[in-house]
Hints:
The protein is built from 15 helices and 28 strands. By secondary structure, the chain is an alpha/beta fold. The chain has three domains: 54-176, Rossmann fold (3-Layer(aba) Sandwich); 224-430, 3-Layer(aba) Sandwich (Rossmann fold), CATH 3.40.50; 435-530, ANL, C-terminal domain (GMP Synthetase, Chain A, domain 3), CATH 3.30.300.30. It binds 5'-O-[(S)-[(2-aminobenzoyl)oxy](hydroxy)phosphoryl]adenosine.
Amino acid sequence: MQKNTVKIDTSISPANIEFSPEFNVAITFIDRHLDEGRSEKIIIRATSGEDVTYGQLAERVNQSGNVLIKWGLNSGDRLLMVVKDSPEFFYLFWGAIKSGIIPVPLNTLLRSNDYAFMIEDSACAAVVYSPEFRTEVESALTQITKAPEHSFITEGVSGSFMEQLKSASSELDASPATATDDCFWLYSSGTTGRPKGAVHCHRDMVVTSQHYGKDTLGVTEDDVCFSAAKLFFAYGLGNGMTFPLWSGASCILFPERPTPDSTFDVIERFKPTIYFGVPTLYAAQLQVLESVEGTSSASPDLSSLRVSVSAGEALPADILRRWNENTGTDILDGIGSTEALHIFISNRADDIKAGSSGRIVPGYVAKIVDENGKEVSQGEEGRLLIRGDSTCKYYWNNEKKTMDTIVDGWLNTGDTYRQDEDGYFIYGGRSDDMMKVGGIWCSPFEIEARLVEHSKVLEAAVVGREDDSGLLKPEAHVVLNNPEDACDDTSEELLHHCKTGLAPYKYPRWFHFPEELPKTATGKIQRFKLR
Ligand code: 3UK
């Protein structure tokens, strides 16, 4: 087989994917399109107004790789990216991979102490960030003892990455790699401890894009993908970047906060065929759709959509039903994870069961086991383990978590599942205390830790409680030093305290002020009693 190529045999299911012995994934995702005649086709439509063709993308990826090399980055070095959804994200990510540098896209909603941890944990050679995230990133850089050698702003200042890119050479040879060499990382949140860097290899994006993107979702060259979930999430990275690239399709990049109004506006203006959201956003969008019904305001025009996708947390059956009623199209719920890179159990356009996560995606194997690791019988709940060729090899710098999570090639999802009588997978909650809020990890311990920093708080317990749409949100039970402080003003004060110290989505939606918390004889808080 020719260097840097991949052979896909779709005559069998799951499709067989064969990699050439030397394989750098940037070639098949970026350079391949020039040989396939797509140079003039638009890959990126940025909502800021900029369009990028496949030809321009390939050229700028090469220029980007050359800038990174000029900065002194070497093969194997980590490049942390705090970058908004924009063409630069593509240039940096693929320019790094093509030159053997490991890009690590980070959640742009985090705070300086989170960034400080990841800068130190990754021992990265450089951090690159959009001007919007300057305050938090620069503050992180001053907090750490050993700052990375380089830090750069993507655009808008003299000497920025984009400025340097313009004068860089557009010739770049791919750094030699194999399909199973380390390629990029994604950080995933932990229950109590710090985020863990999931290390993915060159083949992983091919595997998810083929087995899920093409063979499950049916992305074709004619599709236009719009992901409300940002590129730094594994979910958004597939939806908004690797799936369109793999199929020769296009994507819409929207750097702002996804709200019902902003997402409807993007859909009306850019006419995507596939929309990728999360349950909380679908619930908010439905509120808008249902409130304009019977009024004189026009309903947003969503007629370009052929299908939508939901992931991040379970999609309540009622949201699917109402979306279908309001738009005439379906939402395909599927469960994925950062460790698996994308969705491994999913509904399909021709096979939907509302309230379920669907069936296994071809190319993956699932089993549901009891606490002794023995498979449970059909219908019984247990812990979901999966296997497939896109799962991360290990967590960086964290052997213990790696050993707990990846056992004999099986990935422990940490989720409780059962298979119903028809074989559909039904979500039954987490096996740890973590919760998903708006599809994003939220650790109750982290919110509790912030609450107890407040001078009025003695102790706190945070649990997940379902809102009106059946979606989990944090609820705080706070014991005050002075019980007489219990009032709405204190709730407001604590809310403000959380919103300033934590990522903006990690705040309790409800406050209660009990006199004490339920505890075991040994003093452990009994969260299940609060739930
Ligand atoms: C939960 C779901 C029920 C579940 C993700 C699609 O969410 C993604 O990755 P994360 O690492 O979280 C993984 C965990 O989230 N979850 C995700 N989807 C569902 N629970 N129904 C669902 N449909 O606890 C899982 O273990 O943030 C989603 C694609 C790529 C992803 N990384």
